[in-house]
Amino acid sequence: MLLCASDRYLAGTSFGIRTETMRITSLGHILPVTDRYVRPVLYTHVGGLATLPREEAKEKFISAVLPAVLIARHELETLRSQLLTLKRSRTWNHADSVLYARASLRFKAKSIDALIAKVGTMPNSVVLAQAAVESGWGQSRIFLEGNNLFGIWSFDPKEPRLAAGSTRGKRVIWLRAYEDIAESIVSYVEILSTSHAFQKLREARAHTSDPYDLLPYLRNFSERRGAYTRQLKYMIRQNDLTRFDHYELDPEFLYERSPWQKNLE
Question: Is 222 in contact with 120 (CB distance < 8 Å)?
Fold first, then answer.
């Protein structure tokens, strides 16, 4: 087990997250998720799940992935809160303008209102269900080698990526590789927030956080369309994933930064 601590700073806010990155050499190192408050540990190289009984493997997978889901959620919800503050502000300083410019480019938005509408998250149960389906409960090679939970494609030869095991005709399919699972989840949410295929999802997400109401709008995530969303619904119900929708990061690992720390960013 290799464990290291780091601070994930949230630009423009007074809070950071003390995360730990843990390279797994034994599945026993994965901390079980037992209550509402989850320790922000980022696991890597989560191999060996196939050796466990099915239900135990599922629980280990959830315990490994949920902290990353919550870290990604916290960062995105913080950004949205910052943007709402900017919208209410009469004047912006340089840091405000930089924050807005970077977020607009990242989420492909042309106004503050459009940007706020695009920055959002999904219920924990939906993210866990998609992660389980797309990674085969953490047993896919792309997840094990590249922390890619959702089979997200890569079109940029300059970014870290892996060749998929299949091709389309003579075309090699490249898939993104990430430093940690949280990066994969943020990338997944960015796709849902920017792709025209998920415009209806974004509209629905603004009015409800009910996972079952949102599932039909994910049909474009897979070529299987309706069969895919039905599988997600079954996955959520069979594994009672909605029990995790109220889970959040342990506040003991959130901290307020001093002014000099903010100025260093």
Answer: no
CB-based contact 214:205 (threshold 8 Å): yes
- C-alpha to C-alpha distance for 16 and 8, rounded to whole angstroms: 6
Using CA atoms, how far apart are residues 117 and 104, in angstroms rounded to an integer? 11
CATH tag, 2-264: 1.10.530.10
pLDDT, position 33: 95
Kindly list the domain boundaries of the chain, sorted by start residue. 2-264
Q: Are 8 and 17 in contact (CB under 8 A)?
A: yes
Q: Give, as one character, the DSSP assignment of residue 122.
A: -
Q: Which of 152, 117, 157 is nearest to 135 (CA)?
A: 152
Note the pTM of the prediction, 2 decimals. Answer: 0.89
CA 178, chain centre distance (Å): 12
Query: Which neighbouring-strand residues pair with 3?
Result: 22
DSSP β-bridge partners for residue 255? 16
Residue 40 zone, left/alpha/beta (φ > 0; ψ -120 to 50; rest): beta
